[in-house]
Amino acid sequence: MSIVLPPDSIHSILVAVIQRNIDPDEQLQYFSWLGFVLLGAVYTAFVFGGELSRDGPLIFSRQNARSVSEILLIHGTFLTILFCLLRFANLTVARLPYWMTDTFKAGRGTRASIAELIFVLACAAMFFVERRRLFVPSEADVSAPESESSQSSMTDEDD
What we know:
By secondary structure, the protein is mainly alpha-helical.
């Protein structure tokens, strides 16, 4: 009588590592990090690409109340979430139903699946949330329009 273990149990993972003759302590060495690095670089380029515009930087300007270290910490947090999301997607794609992973023509020879579209939409949502979190107007910029509007209302009352 043999016991059948689920494919994602600890025992089956260890058997797979041992069969491939990979030391469990060095398992991440054989993991392909290139996709993660490329995705992180592209995501970072999208987030900070607007800083090179003709209008000048916004996130790294004095108008932002956040310091550079806070900005980098926020971006590092979102990159970590992105990498966890990618790792989760890699692990779960085999368990998704066929209709979610089956590709279809997305235009001009490009093929995509519903799972890929969901991942892209999640990345886009992360991008917009991160951009909103990175820029917080400084107190001097927020109070300046209020004082100007109060001065203009005072001059209107004098007339």
